[in-house]
Automatic annotation (TrEMBL):
It comes from the Bacteria. GO terms for molecular function: isomerase activity. It holds the Pfam family Thioredoxin_5. This is Dithiol-disulfide isomerase.
Length: 281
């Protein structure tokens, strides 16, 4: 965590006004720096889901996409993707060759933040659930169809400068905030001109709740967790381990309860070798 300059009294000032927040007004903003193809970033999702369910009324999330440093790929493979649309090719400049999924997410975001988030989750599903290559243009286009965004507009935006510039903005923010490790969360109080609190890597859930309390200046009140069906509806796709983590129950209990929902045709069971996924129907 970074050192943040503030006085204890400035934090406590918030305790006198937090009861008067409007229903849609949220005092905090959390920047989530991630690589959409990074398994560690994907694992952070269980923490964010629980945090959203219990304390989402206090904060808004902003995803910032960057790239976890890995061994370089074949430049030609990354730059030259066969589109299959009018036999054209999608060209990616060499400096962005490793950012193809992030460029696609930014193209989807041009249709709105919610559209971009739906597309981002489909990218993760394709990679971590279906074990598909998200550097493949075919996969990127299938994700666009599944995310329920304007397909033709997405194709145009994917080949536009606007998507590249949007990604450049994310990379610039990553550099300016000196983010060296992914995932990283940065907590900001939108009502106070103070430095944020930066948390690199993953920590126990209680640490994030403690940070919320510190930056708010009062003890936040947790919402009661929803039913499992409501949770599945909220996130659309969720794993057994995530449910176990959120509800603090054993995996076999999760399986038992989710199979009841499967019999109600509320969820679809997707067993994989390493994890069990549940998709809301």
């Amino acid at each position: 965590m970074t050192n943040h300059k503030t006085s204890s009294s400035s934090w406590y000032d918030w305790s006198t006004v937090h009861h008067f927040f409007k229903p849609l007004e949220k005092p905090l903003e959390i920047y989530v720096f991630i690589d959409p193809t990074c398994s560690s970033c994907f694992m952070l999702d269980r923490i964010l889901k629980r945090l959203k369910l219990e304390y989402g009324h206090y904060f808004a999330l902003k995803h910032v996409f960057s790239k976890q440093q890995r061994k370089s790929r074949s430049t030609e493979q990354s730059r030259n993707l066969q589109s299959g649309i009018s036999c054209e090719k999608l060209w990616i400049e060499e400096e962005f060759a490793g950012h193809v999924p992030s460029i696609a997410i930014k193209a989807a975001e041009l249709q709105g933040k919610k559209a971009g988030y739906r597309y981002f989750k489909k990218i993760q599903e394709s990679l971590f659930m279906n074990q598909e290559s998200v550097d493949s243009l075919d996969t990127l286009l299938i994700c666009a169809e599944k995310a329920d965004i304007d397909y033709e507009e997405f194709i145009r935006d994917l080949q536009s400068e606007a998507a590249i510039k949007a990604l450049e903005c994310d990379l610039r923010i990553t550099e300016e905030m000196d983010v060296q490790e992914l995932p990283t969360l940065v907590f900001f109080n939108q009502k106070m001109e103070e430095e944020g609190i930066k948390v690199a890597g993953s920590y126990p859930y209680e640490i994030y709740v403690q940070i919320l309390e510190e930056i708010l200046g009062f003890q936040p009140k947790a919402n009661p967790l929803p039913s499992l069906e409501e949770c599945a509806r909220e996130f659309q796709v969720i794993t057994t381990s995530e449910i176990s983590y959120i509800y603090q129950i054993e995996s076999h209990e999760v399986e038992h309860e989710m199979k009841k929902l499967m019999l109600k045709r509320a969820v679809e069971h997707i067993p994989l070798r390493s994890e069990t996924f549940w998709r809301y129907m």
